Amino acid sequence: MTTPIRHPYLDHPGPIAFAHRGGDADGLENTLPQFRRAVAAGYRYIETDVHTTADGRLVAFHDATLDRVTDGSGRIADLPWREVRDARVAGREPLPLFEELLETFPGVRWNVDLKAESALHPFLELVERADAWDRICVGSFSEARVVRAQRLAGPRLATSYGTRGVLNLRLRSWGVPAALRSSAVAAQVPETQSGIQVVDRRFVRAAHARGLQVHVWTINEADRMHRLLDLGVDGIMTDHIDTLRRVMEERGVWV
Length: 255
What we know:
single chain, alpha/beta, 9 helices
C-alpha cells in the first residue's frame, strides 16, 4: 500500500515506474529518442539530470563533462550552448534542453537531479514560466541544494531527500534520533550503499510513518524489482524499462 499523497506529483495509482535517464540500456541516455521510447512503452515518470552551459542554458545530461557518452569533450559549465548542442550521444543524438522536454512531453512527470548549483535559479524560473510545478520532483546528492530549492519555491515544489536526509532516515529506522526535513515528499535511495543495506522493511516503515514515499534506484534485475515491491516501496527507477514494465504487469500494478 502506498502512502497518502502529499503532492500532486505523486498522484499515481500503485507503485511508480521511473525510466532512469529515459532508459539507459540502449546507450542513448538522456536523448529525445530514448525519452520517446520510454513514453511509447507507457512510462509517465522519467528521471533526468540538469546542468547549465556557460551561457545559462539548462541541458538534460548526467555528467559534468561531455567526454564519457558523447563525441564532444569539455565541461558543460565552461561551454556555450552553441558548442554543447553539436555534441552527439553515442555519436548519434544531440543533448536536449530541459525546456524542450517539458514542451515535447506534456504528459510526463520529471524527476530531476540538479547536478550543479548554477542550475538552481534558471531551473526554478523555467518551471515557473511553464507552470510545471505538479510535474516536477527535485532531488540531489546535496541536501543543501535541495533545501535551497525548497525555500525558494515553497510547497509547490516536490523534493526528495539528499544524502544527509537519507542517512538520517536510515538512523531513525534503527531507533536513533536524527533530524529530518519535513518538506520532503520522498526518499529516493539506492538499495545498498558501500555494502550497507539501505532499503529494508524497517526503512520503508520509517519512511511511510512520516508520509514519505520510497523510490529506489537503479534497479535492472527482475528478481530485485520483485523483492523491493514485496517490501512495499512506492517506486523503482530502472535503465531496463521493458523489464520493469513486465514485472509490474505480472504483479497487476502496471498503469
